[in-house]
Amino acid sequence: MKVLAISGSPRPQGNTYHLLTEALQVCAQQGLDTEYISLHDKQILPCQACLKCAKDKNRCAQEDDFMPVYEAMAAADGLLVGSPVYFGSATPNLMALLDRAGYVARMGDNPFYRKVGSPVVVARRAGVNFTYAQLQLWFVIMGMFVPGSTYWPIAYGLKPGEVAQDAEGMKTVATLAENTAWLLKKLA
User: Fold this and answer.
1) Segment 170-184, tens digit of pLDDT
2) Distance CA 52, CA 37 (A)
3) Of 27, 30, 131, 167, which residue is 20 to 30 A from 61 by alpha carbon distance?
4) What pLDDT score does 173 carry?
5) Distances in Å between the alpha carbon of 64 and those of 12, 44, 54, 69, 170?
6) Contacts (Cβ under 8 Å, ≥6 apart) of 133
7) Through-space distance between the first and last CA atoms of the chain, rounded to whole angstroms
8) Which pLDDT value is given to residue 171?
């Protein structure tokens, strides 16, 4: 079984990276294969609502970095997506990925249905609850199972790596990863 973590942060090794790699380390300790993808160097254009994915099943017509990321998402058993809070919401590049993945999946075979996944959110100060809810709605509409933790999987930090000082946030994300691994094994 494999868990894929996708960072929507434009910083290659910012706080979102630290949270997601912590989660992946826990998943690996639980015997799962892991993969990490950062969108910082990827061009993921917004959905154009062209609906070509309704005709060309499981494929988006736009030519950018979307399809390789989508294929990795579809191949994974578990999916964690992380975002810093940008003006009260998830980053535009992550939302572009999820919007397009949702359309392609729903117009095709929906490879996400009954898989396991969760968002992970980091902020300097505020906006985590809205951003977490915004991202969680994608998992729910895709028919995925969203594991819980001891609190919402959120943490705080401004400068890259500062999130590691948020002991409660790091522990919450680690517990989320433990619960993700447990649920994946139960569903197998």
Assistant:
1) 999 999 999 999 999
2) 26
3) 131
4) 98
5) 19, 6, 19, 10, 33
6) none
7) 9
8) 98
User: What CA–CA distance (Å, rounded) separates 53 from 138?
Assistant: 18
Pairwise CA distance, residues 10 & 39, whole Å: 7
- Give the predicted TM-score (pTM) of the model: 0.97
CA distance 56 to 39: 25
Asked if residue 140 lies in contact with residue 115, where contact means CB atoms within 8 angstroms, the answer is: no
What crossing angle do the helices spanning 92-107 and 66-75 adopt, rounded to 10°?
60
Q: Within 13 Å, how many C-alpha atoms sit on residue 123's CB side?
A: 19
Q: What is the distance of C-alpha 5 from the center of its chain?
A: 6
Tell how strand 154-156 and strand 116-123 pair up: parallel
Report phi then psi at 179, rounded to 5.
-70, -35
* Residues with Cβ within 8 Å of residue 140, at least 6 apart in sequence: 146
Pairing state between β 33-38 and 2-7: parallel
The pLDDT tens digits of the residues spanning 99-119 come to 999 999 999 999 999 999 999
All domains in the chain, ordered by first residue: 2-187 (3.40.50.360)
Do residues 160 and 13 touch, judged by C-beta distance below 8 A? Answer: yes
Say which residue the tokens 């960072």 belong to. 7
The DSSP H or E segment spanning 133 is helix 128-141
